Amino acid sequence: MVPQYKLTYFNLKGLGEPLRFLLKYGNLDFEDIRYELKDWPQIKDKQPFGQLPTLEHNGKVAVQSIAIARYLAKQVKLTGANDWEDLEIDSVIDTITDLRAKIISNHENEEAMKQVRKESIPFYLNRLETIAKNNKGHLAVGKLTWADVYFAGALDFINARAGVNIIEKYPNLQKVVDTVLTIPQIKKWVATRPKTDL
Amino acid sequence: MVPQYKLTYFNLKGLGEPLRFLLKYGNLDFEDIRYELKDWPQIKDKQPFGQLPTLEHNGKVAVQSIAIARYLAKQVKLTGANDWEDLEIDSVIDTITDLRAKIISNHENEEAMKQVRKESIPFYLNRLETIAKNNKGHLAVGKLTWADVYFAGALDFINARAGVNIIEKYPNLQKVVDTVLTIPQIKKWVATRPKTDL
């Protein structure tokens, strides 16, 4: 049978892994297409906005990883119970994106990264830790949502670029990640997925 | 009567104006709180993530401008008809955000901005123009959605930072903006809102 979804990304975790986590969580059948970075110059111009990941479904192609994650979250029933709950989830997702952008945009500059490790990471993590504490080990609305799955799926790449385990001193954030990684479908995926550094 | 919503931002258009457009579009009663930039150092630490805008509703406060915009879009019925349509809308919103980030992060460096004007802006705008053409003068799903209202509300600030009118050569994108700016509630708001440079 032809898979329902086609996810195209690089052969790394990066911005693709949170989407793979969501697809696996919901047992959605998908083709996991992975390009090597060295082949990117030949492939870039064929992408709608010169970027990956893309998601193909019913013959249509979508871009933008967070938008795709939100769509998948709806398919696997990991959204909020009402509009305000979805706002809480979207808000923490965009905050994770801000933190990641701060790390990614500075990771090649060791002086800048020292500052990011000393200031930005604790600034964000202290606040996210309080949120996780107030939500009983979740990132929003007091239960498992796509914010938790997204964060757990994004963490390896963020940590690799940060050069530290950003949640090491934050037990409630560690609980968020542990909860996701012990979900059987996710646990199996992590044990069997292609091994990559990033 | 106490307004239902409280929007807190700076006394400028920036990331706040698309939210004001959405509130005005839906005739939602809101308090439009505007801080002067010079007062920001005293206010910053009181914000949940040291950032504005925030939206207050029913005694709860939300952060992150795009997340807030999506929430308001649901209240004023400017979303898609199904999950895939919402993905199309979210995707174009995130693309506008990418373009804006590229402009904002370089606007203080004239050499970098020359490159942004020569490469990034045409790259994004050509693709967005094709989308607007294929969607009959809208940014997604062939009808008015919050993507159109967001873009029209964000444009003045983007243009001010870009130093050019980025849609000048793109008739279908101009049509998107014209359609929004002729909606009576929006037209009235633009005519009567506080005058600001950014």
TrEMBL record, chains A, B:
Task: Name the enzyme group at the top EC level.
Answer: transferase
PROSITE patterns per UniProt: GST_CTER, GST_NTER
Q: In the UniProt record, does the keyword Transcription regulation occur? A: no
Q: Which GO terms describe its molecular function?
A: glutathione peroxidase activity; glutathione transferase activity
Query: Which GO terms fall under biological process for this protein?
Result: glutathione metabolic process
Q: Which Pfam families match?
A: GST_C_3, GST_N
User: Can you state which reaction this protein catalyses?
Assistant: RX + glutathione = an S-substituted glutathione + a halide anion + H(+)
Q: What is the name listed in the Swiss-Prot or TrEMBL entry for this protein?
A: glutathione transferase
Kindly give the CDD domains that the UniProt entry links to this protein: GST_C_Sigma_like (cd03192), GST_N_Sigma_like (cd03039)
- Could you tell me which species this protein originates from? Agrilus planipennis
Tell whether Ion transport is among the UniProt keywords.
no
**Chain ranges of the GST C-terminal domain:** 82-198
The record describes its quaternary structure and partners as: Homodimer.
Q: Keywords assigned by UniProt?
A: Transferase
Tell me where in this chain the GST N-terminal domain is found: 3-80
Per its UniProt entry, which superkingdom is the organism in? Eukaryota
Q: Which family does it belong to?
A: Belongs to the GST superfamily. Sigma family.
- EC number(s): the record gives 2.5.1.18
